[in-house]
Amino acid sequence: MSGRCGGPMKTGQTPSADEVIRPMTGIQVDSDLEFSLLGINDAEELFSVVESNRAYLREWLPWLDQTNSVEDEISFISMSLDEYEKREGVIYAIRLGGRIIGTIGLNWIDWGNRGCGVGYWLSESHTGQGIVTRCCTRLMEHCFDNLGLHRFVLEAAVENHESRAVADRLGMRLEGITKDREWLYDHYVDAALYAITAPEWRTKNQD
Q1: What's domain 17-204's architecture?
Q2: What are the sequence ranges of the domains in the chain?
Q3: Whole-model pTM over 0.70
Q4: Strand 151-157 relative to strand 115-122: parallel, antiparallel, unpaired?
């Protein structure tokens, strides 16, 4: 859900070395919107965006209290790069006109069962412009068309209506409500679990 930490469902047999594929390091969304693999050199800029959006992000994301310095950001990026090398996930910086405005990525990748789970956040000043929907669409295309994945999952807190609206716009199916899915500082939140498969996606977008 959070777009920061790894999730469950990493079961299944990983492909052998000669079959290894991994997410691209950079993906263009449109003329001025792209996302690129988060690197250590991004730590200062990323932390600045987090710091200026702290109160806004804290409503639904559980990791703000553990991100209090550029050093904390470096630790997170190092962990995410390690997961990328292990092919367990990927975190991208969302860039608009070259500037970081948020992140998007795969919190987990289950190569054996060909599934993945998306996570993201966006600075408050850039919400309401369709940016997350466009980025998710492009990431979904990459997962289905380039990585050979079959199932794409999005989880959002039940009361997080903005993220749930993203899932609806993507044509994802609500599969159920997960009770007490995430500990959010001082309380549990239930989550709505959405998913779509590659054949469903292609059918919805064949026009």
Answers
A1: 3-Layer(aba) Sandwich (3.40)
A2: 17-204
A3: yes
A4: parallel
